Each structure stands twice: as structure tokens, then as C-alpha cells.
Amino acid sequence: MPQPFDPEKSCGEAFGAACLQRIVADSSDRVAWLRARSRGITATDVAKLATQRSIQNAALDKLHGSGFGGNVWTDHGRSREPVIAAWVQAIHGIAPSTSLFHAEGQPLHLATPDGFAVRASGAVELAEIKTTSKPWRSIPRAYLRQVWWQQYVLGAERTLVVWEQHDNFVPTHDEPLSRWVDRDDEQIAVLVGLAGQLVEVLRRQVARDAASREARELYGPGALYV
């Protein structure tokens, strides 16, 4: 089994303190991890952000849940991730990570990379693991948004995107496929802006919901329709 990322052992002295200070939760405590994720903007949230309509839809999902609880495809992905992570660690020296980090100076901006490494130079490199039933000619745009957001949150220089294609849940290659994605500060700036818009939509909706609850408590539901 792959050895999980240990911030105290894996980070350099200068970077180590920053790593530890920016860990919010760990998915090994799933309840705490989900609670922490619900209070910020994650890479999963940002992957959906492309248009103004997508911001509204993401806000609804954030406030009320998407209703998606998983399926055979996500179950397969979860079962294969430790196997793929072991390959990533053995070949590329990137340890699996279950830590949820926040960005420097931005406690609402969150990410849980699948893999994390600090090289001798101090450069941070990440891994993102996917499974797919279809061949990829290029990395899907939504996954690139996830990658760029994680790079922003962690201060990473690049990310190894690793994917395993399967046919009826049987891997089609002896080894996963992979491609490095370099940090793109222009794309990151766009995503940070979209995330800021999402936060504002969420804050307005929460305020409206709170006002509605207060009105119902003071006057009863009938007063809302007068």
C-alpha cells in the first residue's frame, strides 16, 4: 500500500510550518472533512464554474446538495484510487494525500489533492487521479479547472494528472496514463474571480434565507403571502 503524505516529514523546514498551518481537515475523518468542505469553495466546486449560470447552479448545489450520492462508476474510482496512487508514488515519488488545505490568506478556498510532494528544490508537485471508460485525447476542461485550483491553493508548480481507462471496469492498459500540467496563473486568476462571485451569491442567498426564517418566526408563514 502507498505511504500517505506526512506534512511533518515531507515538507522542508520553511515550508513545513506553512503546510501544517493550512491543513483544515483530513478525509480519514470523513464527517469533519465533509463539514469543512461545506464551509468553503473546493476544487470540485470550481470545476463546475464556467458561466454565470454555472455559478448559480453551483450555489444551489452548495446550499441544498446535488442529490448525487454516487454510483457504480464512482465506486469503481474509489476502489481503484489506492492502486493508482501506489503506482504514482512508486514511479513519480508523489505520496497520496487525504489532507484538506486552504489557500494562503484565503480560508474559504479549499482543496484536497490526491497526491502531494515537496521536491529537494522546495517546489510543490501534486497528483490528481481519475478513472474513465472513454479514451482521452486531452484532459477534460473541468478536470483542468480542478488542477489549477489545487495548484493555487497549495502553491504548486505542476500537477501529474493520472487516469486509468477501463472497459466494463477492467483496466485497458497495464499501467495508468499520465500527463504533467504546469501551473497557469492566468487561468488561476479567472477561477479565483469566479469563486469570489460564487461566494457572493452564497452570502446573498444565506442572508435571504435567514430573513425569511426570521419573518416566519415573527409573523407566521401566512404573513409572507400578504
TrEMBL record:
InterPro entries reported in the protein's UniProt record: PDDEXK-like_dom_sf, Restrct_endonuc-II-like, YqaJ_viral_recombinase
YqaJ viral recombinase domain: residues covered: 33-156
Domain of life: Bacteria
Gene3D superfamilies: 3.90.320.10
Pfam families linked to this entry: YqaJ
Name used for this protein in its record: YqaJ viral recombinase family protein
